[in-house]
Amino acid sequence: MEEPTLLHSLSRNAARADSFLLLSDQDASFSEINNRISNNLALLASTVSMRAASFSRRERPIPAHEVTAALREITARIVAVGHLHSLLATRPHGANAGFGAHMRELCRLFVSALAAPGQVELIETGTNDCTVGADDFLPLSLIVTEVVTNALKHAHPAGAPGKLMIGCRRKPGGSIFIEVADDGVGLPERFDFSADAGTGLRTIDVLAQQIGAKTSFESRAIGLRFTLRLPATDGDDQAGAA
Ligand SMILES: Nc1ncnc2c1ncn2[C@@H]1O[C@H](COP(=O)(O)OP(=O)(O)O)[C@@H](O)[C@H]1O
Ligand SMILES: [Mg+2]
Q1: The CATH number of the domain where 132 resides is what?
Q2: Are the C-beta atoms of 175 and 231 separated by less than 8 Å?
Q3: Residue 187 CB less than 6 A away from ligand 1
């Protein structure tokens, strides 16, 4: 029951964030920042309460490693909101901000929050001046959060050291290409997205649809590769790069 609520609140919050981003007046920037942060905190709260609800439905005691994993995921999300907050504070309008640097920092923070020291090597597979519009910035951050959290949680279930490859490129013409790949076990055999996707994959789907991005998950002999393509929209040519 909780999941539709989360997805609904995601769409509503993102729509609200979008409408705030239409404000370009200097005076609006403070309320804009606060509203975006508060949207993020609302998302965080709904994720935590969803977890609490799923734990409370369990009849048996919950193993310590599951509780640890859940708390680590929550930590990662708090870290993500904190980073977004500091980014917005230094770039109030957030318009046409470079997503590559933000993504790199976000991934670095996730690795230090979710993995043991030295367990995950972060590798950049080519990042250029990956400028994205203000209204795509938050949904893209949330998508990357889910994909990277999954890689750190599921790629190496036995705790073997692994690699996380990340890239963000802005193509000539303005479209955006993002990839996140791990070198782990890949999706379980006969994985069926409609039946087996959890909140993370469904959140990615909803957010990608919202911004008109195409996503794919390619489960390979070694690891899972996620790609996202966001077509250029009117005005992207002025946004730089190419
Ligand atoms: N990088 C990955 N490597 C291996 N399996 C993955 C990866 N990402 C996702 N999965 C699989 O997809 C399932 C659904 O992911 P998700 O919707 O995020 O839910 P959750 O992470 O809460 O299980 C996971 O339980 C896992 O089996
Ligand atoms: Mg997940």
Answers
A1: 3.30.565.10
A2: yes
A3: yes
